[in-house]
Amino acid sequence: MADFVGALDQGTTSTRFMIFDHGGNEVARHQLEHEQILPQAGWVEHNPTEIWERTRAVVQSTLNKANLQPTDLAAFGITNQRETTLVWNRRTGRPYYNAIVWQDTRTDRIASALERDGRGKTIRHRAGLPPATYFSAGKVQWILENVDGVREAAEKGEAVFGNMDTWVLWNLTGGTDGGVHVTDVTNASRTMLMDLETLDWDDELLSFFGIPRSMLPEIRPSSAPDPYGVTRPDGPLGGEVPLTGILGDQQAATVGQVCFSPGEAKNTYGTGNFLLLNTGEELVRSKAGMLTTVCYKFGDHPVVYALEGSIAVTGSAVQWLRDQLGIISGAAQSENLARQVEDNGGVYFVPAFSGLFAPYWRSDARGAIVGLSRFNTNAHLARATLESICYQSKDVVEAMREDSGVSLDVLKVDGGVTANELCMQMQADILGVPVSRPVVAETTALGAAYAAGLAVGFWNTTDELRQNWNEDKRWLPTWSDEQREKGYAGWKKAVERTYGWVDVD
């Protein structure tokens, strides 16, 4: 068998390809950003053609860096930004419209109407999700209703839908010349269209959004011994490599963090924050604002579920300080600036740029900076930005405890923001539990590699994967209970100030 596994991580701001060895160690990577298209307030789009071009480039560059051939890869896995929605023509391969990104809020009227007329209860029960702008179905409905010719093409079977995993896989396996139109259960569980019990598209949910079933990809397991397809010899790999793993990015990070037992949880710090708690084969329906979602399904084994707390804006709040306000020149500078002050100086920043996600689900909220006085400086704002990442995570941890009865002993963390050591110390202080970062911080790509490798016997069991996990650093809480309670009370007060800023019909 070949000595390595490749994993494509198609994220919100960039696309990367990584190669791992049997020990789960990184061998090589290449990463390229893509444009964030912001046509108007609340709209966020990506160019799907640019993303496919970036995919080709990063795969080829990574192989070149490692001096490897496609035949050196035993399998290929894909992980992706999940709810980002694309409709394209299966005959021409051309997208009808830009990909509508998960952060986009243009479908707020669709979501509100579902909630208002009672269909939201059905969606919550079947799909485990609240009606929200976050998920894919409303975005597909918007494209069908607002882009000329798409409804007609869909009814003729020419227009097809997919999240970014499906788009990339379709192109890797030939595109217009035999491209495979599939997704996995984790991505399908983020659409508001899949029944969590049957793991199939639900006709009643489809009717809520006016989506023809013929548009949808086939739903497959996250790890497939029978490959979804193979890469085409004329594609970026230049050879036939089995595509055997697909996981939505947050589920991939959960697998990369080897959270295979019920009660184990991880928090990924990226553009947004996503905390997943493995609930095993039990489908736990949230009463506290969490999402019920598929964690993974490996081959013929039973499906494993999770509770998830999804937070829209965390790492992207730091990007906002850099790109829109210009008070830092790079993400790393946020830590240095925040260290110039001992505390937030009474300032709280609630970055509700796309409304509030878990556990609030308030599409009428917008970002707010509160508690300002003449005393405050850009350092206080930098510190409040890092604290906002941690307080939003605490909101989610508290809601999960309410739903599951599980109190965390330790929080496993991964993603780009974990390089900010001050932020991780704040997270331990605000939660009151240790925070643990693994040696391989890019657990999203690693999880996709694990799913692909398990399918072909590159790794035999999840116990084997556990042996690959090693801790890099641990942060212990230093705040008193009084400090923690006072800080959190201020945060909750600040969150309330963001409500009702936008009128939602």
From TrEMBL:
Binding site for ADP: T12, R16, T271, G315, G416, N420
Catalysed transformations (reactions): glycerol + ATP = sn-glycerol 3-phosphate + ADP + H(+)
Entries under Pfam families matching the protein: FGGY_C, FGGY_N
Binding-site list for ATP: T12, T13, S14, T271, G315, Q319, G416
Domain (Carbohydrate kinase FGGY N-terminal): residue spans on this chain: 6-256
This enzyme's EC code(s): 2.7.1.30
Positions with a binding annotation for glycerol: R82, E83, Y134, D249, Q250
Binding site for sn-glycerol 3-phosphate: T12, R82, E83, Y134, D249
Every Carbohydrate kinase FGGY C-terminal domain range: 266-455
Pathway the protein takes part in: Polyol metabolism; glycerol degradation via glycerol kinase pathway; sn-glycerol 3-phosphate from glycerol: step 1/1
Keyword Nuclease: no
GO molecular function list: glycerol kinase activity
Keyword presence, Transferase: yes
Description of activity control: Inhibited by fructose 1,6-bisphosphate (FBP).
Keywords, alphabetical: ATP-binding, Glycerol metabolism, Kinase, Nucleotide-binding, Transferase
EC category name: transferase
Family under the similarity heading: Belongs to the FGGY kinase family.
Cited function: Key enzyme in the regulation of glycerol uptake and metabolism. Catalyzes the phosphorylation of glycerol to yield sn-glycerol 3-phosphate.
PANTHER family reported for this sequence: GLYCEROL KINASE, SUGAR KINASE
Protein name: Glycerol kinase
Organism annotation: Actinomadura nitritigenes
Organismal lineage: Bacteria, Bacillati, Actinomycetota, Actinomycetes, Streptosporangiales
Name of the gene: glpK
